[in-house]
Amino acid sequence: MSERDSMVCRSCGKEERASEGYPCERCGTFICQVCSMRGVVLCAKCVDEVAKGAQ
Ligand SMILES: [Zn+2]
Ligand SMILES: [Zn+2]
Hints:
Elements: E1 6-8, E2 15-17, E3 22-23, E4 30-31, H1 33-37, H2 44-51
Antiparallel strand pairs: 1-2, 3-4
The structure holds zinc ion (ZN) (2 copies).
């Protein structure tokens, strides 16, 4: 009945509509449209791991 279309963005932490978001290019987790428009293609965890030099 109620819409269950919201997911927590793994970059900014806000709850946004899943249908308007994009998957992280590395792990596929949810990135919201706002972050995606800002050029974010990786979730916070992946950004952190890439920064540390992990593959
Ligand atoms: Zn976001
Ligand atoms: Zn990721």
